[in-house]
Each structure stands twice: as C-alpha cells, then as structure tokens.
Design goal:
Blueprint: E1 8-13, E2 18-23, E3 29-35, H1 36-40, H2 43-55, E4 58-64, H3 66-75, E5 80-83, H4 86-94, E6 98-114, H5 127-137, E7 141-143, H6 149-161, E8 170-172, H7 177-186, E9 191-194, H8 195-200, E10 207-211, E11 218-226, H9 236-247, H10 249-257, E12 259-260, E13 263-264, E14 267-268
Parallel strand pairs: 3-4, 3-5, 7-8
Antiparallel strand pairs: 1-2, 5-11, 6-9, 6-10, 6-11, 6-14, 12-13
Helix pairs in contact: 5-6, 9-10
Length: 271
C-alpha cells in the first residue's frame, strides 16, 4: 500500500496488537542553534509555530550565546545557526562551516542601569564614553562573559574606550541575557542588553535604560545553513526551507508583527 509524506504511519504495539497512529510529518524537524535573545524575547514562540504550520517542519531550538552557537554549528550538532555577531558569522562561512549568511532582522543594544545612574551615563556623548564613566565610577557592571553576541559587542565597547574591565565592580555571570539582567537587578548594576530582551524582561526592579542611540549599538541578526559538505547528516533541504521562509515576505511580516506592550522588538531587513 503506497505511502506519501502526509500518510499515517501505523505501528503495531503490545501483544494485543493495538495500533498507534503517528503523523509522518511529525518526524520532520530541524535543530537550530540561536542566541538567547531570540528565545528570551519570545520571538521564537511567535514565529516558529507559523513556520511549522506552513511547512510541517518542527524547529527545535538550542538557545546559546552566539559564540557557543557557532561552535555547535562547527561540530555539526545543528542544521542552522541564527545569531548576531557579524564578524564571527562571516568567519564561520569563510572557514567553510556555513554555506551562506542571510540578513534577517536587527534591533539595537542599550545600556541599562539603576535609575539613579551613579555613573552619570545619561550625560555620555557616545557609548564608549558611557562605558568609561561606569569604569571610572567603579559602578557595578554585570557582564554575560560568555562569548555571546552581546558579550562581543560589550568587549568592543570596552576596547573603544581603552579600558580592560577588571576588579570587584566587574561581575561576569557566564550566563544568558535574562540571568545576567536578573543579576543586574539584584546588585544593582549596569549591563548591556539587546533591546528586544529588555522590552520583554519583566523583572526590571529599579533598572532603566540609561544610554541608547549610538550607531555602534546597531545589532544585526543573520541565519546560516551549516555546510552539509562538512557534515553529511545536516538536513540541508529542511534547513534551507527555514531560511527561505525567514527571508520571505511571510517570515519578514511575522517578525515585524511581534510586539510586547505595543513595542516592536525586531525589524526585518532581508535583502
């Protein structure tokens, strides 16, 4: 009896010969390594069901910092990486671990801190000046310290400021964005975060945005298929279907439509 991709797979189980019906398409899935901001912000909870409904492909997410996500891709443990550290993404492709990088969306980074702003970051002329003010004041700063896209952006700001952050004021959590923000709330401390995670973060305590708007805080996201020539088990067809949907009108509209409290968290920019 012929079967098609939407046929019902019949499995005989138990001595009573009972039959369990399992939809064949339920077996179609890909694994995506992605930054914690796409998960913590709630974006994936909004867009992935739409993709699965349209294609029948389930997306299983491994939420990691960008550095870890790219390393997971290098090992071939996922089919797709969806991250936000452009130089590292370009290197991933140049080294042959990824097929091609596609722009998907962007938001920006912001510096959050105690509303009293003990380091006077609101008066800063640019983001590097804000980081300099924090260091000179010895004000507590909670860093992800995990080689994520956010951590890499933070390190670039310290470098631009000519500062090597160290000392009791500099707190490396080694955790995701949500956990790092929780630490900042408890201390309280300053932190660098993507705007999407901040807007969806409920436990803000006394923290508020104290600096924003510098063009260097631009935060683009890209998606890359792991190279099946390096890892033959990569689900290239299904993974590319996910990428194609993200950059399609349907995917871009789904990203643009995601809001929290009336605020748009991510802005589509597929070419």
């Amino acid at each position: 009896m012929p079967l098609n991709t939407r046929a019902i797979l019949l499995c005989a189980v138990s001595s009573l010969g009972s039959i369990v019906a399992i939809p064949a398409f339920a077996q179609d899935f890909i694994t995506v390594a992605s930054t914690t901001s796409t998960e913590n912000s709630g974006l994936f909870g909004h867009i992935l069901p739409l993709f699965s409904e349209e294609t029948g492909i389930e997306v299983r997410v491994v939420a990691q910092g960008t550095g870890q996500a790219l390393e997971t891709g290098r090992r071939g443990d996922v089919d797709v990486v969806f991250v936000h550290a452009l130089p590292a993404e370009e290197q991933f492709v140049a080294e042959g671990y990824g097929v091609e990088r596609f722009d998907v969306m962007y938001n920006d980074f912001v510096i959050v801190g105690p509303d009293s702003d003990p380091a006077k970051t609101r008066a800063a002329q640019n983001a590097a000046d804000a980081m300099t003010a924090i260091a000179q004041a010895g004000a507590a700063f909670a860093s992800r310290g995990d080689d994520s896209g956010t951590h890499q952006a933070e390190q670039a700001l310290w470098s631009a400021a000519g500062i090597v952050p160290e000392g009791a004021w500099y707190l490396e959590t080694g955790s995701g964005m949500g956990a790092t923000l929780n630490t900042a709330v408890q201390v309280p401390a300053y932190a660098l975060t993507d705007r999407g995670t901040w807007l969806s973060f409920a436990n803000r305590g006394d923290l508020t945005i104290t600096y924003e708007g510098d063009p260097v805080l631009f935060n683009p996201y890209g998606v890359i298929l792991v190279n099946p020539e390096r890892h033959a088990h990569v689900k290239a067809q299904e993974g590319q279907a996910f990428i194609d949907w993200l950059v399609s009108d349907a995917g871009q509209q789904a990203i643009a439509a995601y809001q929290v409290g009336g605020d748009q968290l991510f802005f589509p920019n597929a070419q």
